[in-house]
Amino acid sequence: MFIDDVKIFVKGGKGGNGAVAFRREKYEPLGGPAGGDGGKGGSVIFVGDEGLTTLLDFRYQKHIVAPDGENGKPKNCYGRDGKDIRVKVPVGSVVTDLTTGAVLADITRHGQEAVIARGGRGGRGNTRFATPKIPAPEFAEKGEAGEEREIRIELKILADVGLVGFPNVGKSTLISALSSAKPKIADYPFTTLVPNLGVVQAKDGRSFVAADLPGLIEGASEGAGLGFRFLKHIERTRVIVHVLDMAIKDRDPHADYLTINQELENYNPKLLLRPQIIAANKMDLPEAEENLKILKEKIRDVPIIPVSAYARRNLDELVYKIADVLDSVAVDAFLEPVREEIVEYKFTPAPPPFTITKAEDGVYVVDGPAIRRHFERTNFDREEEVKRFAQRLRRLGVDEELRKLGVKHGDPVRVIKYEFEFWD
Length: 424
Ligand SMILES: Nc1nc2c(ncn2[C@@H]2O[C@H](COP(=O)(O)OP(=O)(O)OP(=O)(O)O)[C@@H](O)[C@H]2O)c(=O)[nH]1
Ligand SMILES: [Mg+2]
Hints:
The structure is a single chain. The protein is of the alpha/beta class. The protein has 3 domains: 151 residues, GTP1/OBG domain (Spo0b-associated Gtp-binding Protein, Chain: A, Distorted Sandwich), CATH 2.70.210.12; 167 residues, Rossmann fold (3-Layer(aba) Sandwich); 67 residues, GMP Synthetase, Chain A, domain 3. The protein contains 8 helices and 18 strands. Strands 10-11-9-12-13-14 form a 6-stranded mixed β-sheet, with helices on both faces. It has a 5-stranded mixed β-sheet with strand order 3-1-8-5-6, with no helix packed on it. Strands 15-16-17-18 form a 4-stranded mixed β-sheet. The radius of gyration is 36 Å and the shape is elongated. Bound molecules: guanosine-5'-triphosphate and magnesium ion. The site of magnesium ion has 6 residues, from helix 1.
């Protein structure tokens, strides 16, 4: 089964918590901190794999969750990291975040890796927070949560060339003549139900990948026939080879050409920017010659290469023409740009640590949450602590601010309820 569009849930593992622990040694009841760091959570990583041609596996795997990191342990032991989960996806997979719409990854190469859901960082253990002032901290960091997202994976075939045209015009016959691809060929419309890829080798050594796509009909861009589901695969081809049946009985090749182009345009107007080559097929049949003459009169801006896929006639000319046009189009000309995810941080301004106002008696009053916190923790009977309090105010920038307001050495300053002399 060819599945090219799935929605799944991915989640990175949570980071392990940092540990709070202390050394317990003989004769040393209150040893130093010894809490280890938590391990990192595992990430969900997608890896491009040429061997895969469908997203079928994701039908049965709708949740991919990487393991958590282990919590930190005593004796400064690290928690183990959660293992990353590597998931193989076909080359050509485009991964989108369903919530933000951002393209997370476009896997275009075999072995290419993309982190789809990052695991959380592990928390640091209390050992890491020890300072000369707090030699035995009783706290540690918690592990960070892993990223989690609903994603869409779309397989958009990465072929250099897409063969498009009405059903039964000979697209599959053509790809089987040009490459070793072996698609089903039959004399009825909609023989091809899923894209077929083939590697085409020109005699001069150049090569390219061609995709034979299910036939398109009028209204394909609105869902008629099979075409719509597969139009997206044309989006990433660099050159469109438009296959026409030159011996068609009750239609006209030129009308077919216009109809298909109209469908391409309806689906995505950018598709018409792609260089086209017309493979005028079935030239072995008698009616073809006359039709070719008419077609050449009507279409002058697109190269027309008459071929017979069935009789294998003039195929080299077609291959060279395709290779030449490919040489003129940049390899990444039509790839989707991977948009960086834009995270909006709400900016909540922190409250100012202090305010300075002038009281009615002319004395400057310093107040604020940070000041109050220090104020409450200070025992003003002890000179040492008062000094530390003053130091903290200085560090908060209180002194500087007072100076700017014109306060001089020896002036009185009120901090909450005590009055001090300003020392400069
Ligand atoms: N005479 C003649 N018949 C051809 C030629 N190319 C293809 N055919 C025949 O046309 C019919 C349709 O060929 P396919 O290759 O299956 O056509 P298709 O475009 O892939 O059709 P869908 O998959 O239905 O879109 C088959 O009977 C082929 O044998 C050709 O160059 N000359
Ligand atoms: Mg076919």
